[in-house]
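If your schedule permits, I should be very grateful for your opinion on a structural question. I would ask you to consider whether the tokens describe a fold that such a sequence might reasonably adopt. Thank you for your consideration; the sequence and its tokens are set out here.
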Amino acid sequence: MKYHISKPSPWLSKFVKHYWSIDNCIPAGQEHTQRIVPHGLLELTFYLGDKPVSKTPGKSFSESTLITGQLSEFYDIQIAGKLSLFSILFYPHGLSRFTDLPLSELSNQNVPLKFIFKEETDELESRLYEAASFAERIAIAERHLLRILQKNKGNNYFNRIEESVQQINQSKGLASIDFLASEACYSRKQFERAFSHSIGTSPKQFLKIVRFQNALAEKAKNKVQNLTELTFKCGYYDQSHMTNDFQKLSGMSPKQYFNEGEAYSDYFQ
């Protein structure tokens, strides 16, 4: 298996968290099941080999290039054959700088790229497929993103919502919605509308996801800490509160989740 990850250029670092790619071949007659959990980020993925399979409504892989919106629930995918993909992981607010589309319309869906960026999609896919290296794919993707950036000013909420995301990150998902709205100079209703438009989910749901991702990050840093310590370190009221969030977002209790494999946070990576 070949895995690569790289940060974006300075011109795109406010919007793109990183690029990553994987090349792997599953032996004939075998398949691997992967559980996808909400990570608070939006992702543009180019499938250059066989596509995964999902039976969950809205999560199909009918196209080779898909944008995954904000997730509020887990789902499973089955991987078989030759897996080869190149992916652009956007910050929560990052994609909103490239489109005027309300990102709430992408919620819990894998949406074909041409639904958002109608121009040059086929050419971009072709160039990425023909690229000889990970570095070359990044260069192609960055040229494309920079062209869109020059043409599109994004939505009017960007700067204020970017600041809100930073405050949420600093609080590890514990900031109150009223505080965030006040800091952004919005009424609560205005803030919830602007946030949903720019992030793709409600502030309440996003805070829940960030708390969950912080719990994964904290467990990854200190694998021996028990669940009681983790509960209060991450700002949950009690273990029942943490268990309820884990069940909704991953389909497992914290104990089951950490027994399944290594704790890892995409959001706080």
